[in-house]
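ESCALATION

Customer reports they have been waiting on this structure for their group meeting. Please prioritize. Original submission:
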Amino acid sequence: MKVAVVILNYNGRKFLEQFLPNVIANCDPDLAEVIVADNASTDDSVAFMKSRFPGVRLIENGSNGGFATGYNVALRQVEAQYYVLLNSDIEVTPHWIEPVVALMDSDPRISACQPKILSYYHKEQFEYAGASGGFIDKYGYPFCRGRVFQNLEVDEGQYDAPMEVFWATGACMFVRADLYHQIGGLDDSFFAHMEEIDLCWRLKNAGYKVFCCPQSHIYHIGGGTLPKNSPRKTYLNFRNNLSLLVKNLPEKRVHRTILYRIFLDWVAAFKFLFEGCPKDFKMVFKAHWDFYKRLKTLREGRKAVEHKPVSCVYRRNIVFDNVLRGKKKFSELDGKIFT
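Update from on-call: job pushed to the front of the queue and completed.
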């Protein structure tokens, strides 16, 4: 099969009921197979799939290893040229696969690609998790075309040009199957959050490109497994962001960048505290503690990566530009400052 659309599910029976028929209806069976991988759900997801969608291939993972391990275990059982990692809370649109595959077919150096991600509830607006392609600044802070921190832009076609980006969202990521396995898949230790940025960075370190193809668009609810204001999500984001920096930065940049990020993280932690979010403050502390405990392992992991300067990095501090210089939109950033 050319394309395998793989939906990872954990206790998401309501999303399968709501969105799976739409995905099936908008996947050409001659081009793509739809697969659901269940991460040992404790609701009735598996029974629901077997009774309502007996024709859809169901992979039952033995445990809930999170987004990273869940996909790694499932994708080892799937043969295709391209994988599509698709969240269960997404409404796809007609012919959403074809433009992305055509773009990737045109250039074998494009290793991963995403469509344009719009909000399910505000369809004129970009969605947080990916918008029209992801970037990072020099300290590892992620942002997107169409979304800088919490500022979500209205989609007026301003980011409709296909372009190389730094990362493609795990909410809907097309990736070459052979490269996925060659690069080692998603990092199991991340569990969830920022594992797709780490994967894309490793692909870029290996000499490949990551793209956004806005000629395909989908609608994403977001926060289907962990709410956006979850302290658990705070923990994973802070821990994993430091981890991906240690793993992927060039040697001459890694130490200074980590020290600066630790300082900025504690600024963010006390901001949580002053805003009345003590649980998030504690999660930053826990994230740093667990990061320190795994630092030796992360340093060992660096040996497997060929570190080099890569494209699509914003060479300023996006936090400074957003908060102090008032840069709320991607289009307001100086394009000459991107590597």
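Sent to customer with the following note: Residues 251-274 form the longest helix (24 residues).
Escalation resolved.
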